[in-house]
Design a protein that fits this description.
By secondary structure, this protein is of the alpha+beta class. It has one domain: HPr-like (Histidine-containing Protein, Chain: A). It contains three helices and four strands. It has helices spanning about 15-25, 50-55, 70-85; strands at about 1-5, 35-40, 40-45, 60-65. Strands 1-4-2-3 form a four-stranded antiparallel sheet, covered by helices on one side. Strand 2 and strand 3 (about 40-45) form a beta hairpin. The protein starts with a strand and ends with a helix. About 20% of the residues are buried. The mean pLDDT is about 95.
Length: about 90
């Protein structure tokens, strides 16, 4: 299991379009289970409504947990995606 935190810099946070794009990106890693945690709430990264339900805004910290598959590669690719898009 690998974990990392990411501070969202997008001015509107993770609303509908960025959440949809994020879920689409996470689906590429089908052999890994990826969860997102904000505060006390943890959700499955593949569930669009759950990701949107976190209510992530600019400046919020989200913890990503990756289990299974090639965790190191997934974390590296996911961090690069987040820096470019959120």
């Amino acid at each position: 299991m690998k974990e990392f935190e990411f501070v969202v810099t997008d001015p509107v946070g993770i609303h509908a379009r960025p959440a949809g794009n994020l879920v689409r990106e996470l689906k590429k890693y089908a052999d890994s289970k990826i969860t997102l945690t904000k505060g006390e709430k943890t959700v499955d990264g593949l569930r669009l409504m759950a990701v949107m339900g976190l209510g992530v805004r600019q400046g919020d910290t989200v913890k990503f947990t990756v289990e299974g598959g090639d965790e190191e590669a997934v974390v590296t690719e996911l961090q690069a995606y987040l820096k470019e898009n959120l």
